[in-house]
């Protein structure tokens, strides 16, 4: 089963334009990629605008690339779709709500600096996590340019301390891979993610 979760960031690459980042508005599922129903997305196009390109499709099984049409805030798989997901997630994921505090390292036009962040981990695996967080100013989005974050996450077994390298950042969401984990917490995390 191929599932595109609600809130996924999807990148559409069309000839002659910059990549377009879209957010899926509802969960969509099908046994195969070619059978996926249209995916409702948040886009800035007006009615009647049609775009065709290659979509980087984030699914519950991993990431794949497929030819897609964007029209009226709906993404539709067209043409010959690949038969399977190209890149599989190697580690088991555990959704949940785990409080987190930490420090983010940002590099932008003002240089490199550190800011405190507070939030919650909403999805974790042995290789990375999804963090929803805010900074001291409590704006609804994180500042752009977070390179890595040192986090202290309250897990069911105790505290997980880890350095996370940013993979993707959208509004108040930050997806990252573990650069370093406290060795004791690493063993506990493997046990936690392995019990499902």
Write up what this structure looks like:
By secondary structure, the chain is mainly β. The chain folds into 2 domains: 79 residues, no CATH class; 102 residues, Beta Barrel (Thrombin, subunit H). The protein is built from 1 helix and 15 strands. The strands form 3 sheets. A 6-stranded antiparallel barrel has the order 2-3-5-8-7-6. Strands 10-11-12-15-14-13 form a 6-stranded antiparallel beta barrel. A two-stranded antiparallel ribbon has the order 1-4. The protein is globular.
What is the CATH topology classification name of the largest domain? Answer: Thrombin, subunit H
Spatial order of strands in the largest sheet? 2-3-5-8-7-6
Order of helices and strands: EEEEEEEEEEEEEEEH
Helix proportion of residues, in percent? under 10%
Number of domains: 2
By DSSP (H or I, 4+ residues per run), the number of helices equals 1
The whole-number mean of residue pLDDT values reads 83
Provide the CATH architecture of the largest domain: Beta Barrel
